[in-house]
């Protein structure tokens, strides 16, 4: 029986079932608005009740990580893996270690990941996982001990053809190495079960850089579409981690003037624009420093401002690359008042619903993370391909592939996001383009 989707009915059902999961409900709300009309215009999508099914995770795994730290003390953390949808391939998506991690955050990330992965055009389903473990201020040995204990639980739920985790906030090359080592020891298998691995043990060139570089390739595609260039544009970046720093590096290479970086404690501001050498230095050293931005300010690379976000600094382009809901309605207003005309998300859901709505209402370019930060997972997909073939491809070939994937995602968003006049609604375009791919895969495979 065909099932006509009704936004209010589905959203009320989810709200009632998952009360308090605010991030998950926020992410679903944004997508539902765009996909309900598409589903209702398509008999197969209605017949298979795709919209309701696409919002719900196929499986949620919870485990307790009890571990002994290097002082011999027992610590207890919570761990999760949300396996949202596998219609397009193995569950794929990162692991986050942060005290703010909870089920709602991981469910929103897993939901978004399915749409993002669909946009890449590669055969990947979507998932996300992590722990409330806080690695800040921990010794290297404690990080290793925690990663090993976390993997002892996770390993029974993942596999190269089942579920392939990667890094996310606070999970970088070091953590992936420890996690991979434990998986290999326990399973006696050398396989592509994680991506973001070291180059010596199955990792791919360009994976580390891919999210930030991909974001700038998407920006380049937007500029081309609008007959303009990155060269000469003033760019405000938030965050100072993997995504932010690689985006800043590529933006400066393209002639952009990157005037900010930030973290949860404040802002580094350089009116003249950070230079390439300073950003490279930050990339090499950020993992080992307590506050790399303060160190940069002390070395005359800019001014440090306590407890400020970048969004009150005048810029042409804003790239939020830190965390969810970091850019509020007030921040959006400040950006608009200062003449910002492009906002591309490097982080996952960094703009609140109200900030997004304001950008779209004012018809400035706003690109959601599921499109503009898809470069990281796309390169992970290419890493999985290399692992399956037991080979390693050259950096320049992979960089070209990344460029071409980001350009294709841009084209998909434009073709589905055209509105009256010249305005492209990238949010709508990304949601609909991803939904069609995912829904077609689900219909083809039956219930
Ligand atoms: N690493 C990857 O390949 C991908 C990451 N992302 C997303 O990009 C964002 C950043 O991730 P990564 O750079 O990998 O993590 P990271 O751990 O390397 O860096 C995170 C940065 O954000 C800052 N930060 C955290 N909370 C903050 C707050 N409340 N206010 C200001 N700054 C804050 C941290 O100080 C740090 O500089 C996250 O939303 C992540 O989900 C998205 C796609 C792929
Ligand atoms: O590389 C991956 O598998 C996941 C990257 C990620 O976590 C993301 O796209 O948010």
List keywords for this structure.
single chain; 447 residues; alpha/beta; Glutamate Dehydrogenase, Chain A, domain 3; Rossmann fold; 48% helix; 16% strand; globular; binds 2-oxoglutaric acid
Describe the structure.
The protein has 3 domains: 1-55 and 425-447, Glutamate Dehydrogenase, Chain A, domain 3, CATH 1.10.285; 57-190, Leucine Dehydrogenase, chain A, domain 1 (Rossmann fold, 3-Layer(aba) Sandwich), CATH 3.40.50; 209-363, NAD(P)-binding Rossmann-like Domain (Rossmann fold). It contains 17 helices and 12 strands. By secondary structure, the protein is α/β, with parallel strands linked by helices. Helix 8 packs across helix 16. The mean pLDDT is 97. It has a 7-stranded mixed sheet with strand order 9-8-7-6-10-11-12, with helices on both faces. A 5-stranded mixed sheet has the order 1-2-4-3-5, sandwiched between helices. 48% of the residues lie in helices and 16% in strands. 1,4-dihydronicotinamide adenine dinucleotide binds at residues 167-170, 211, 239-244, 262-264, 321-323, 326, 346-348, 373, 376. Homohexamer.
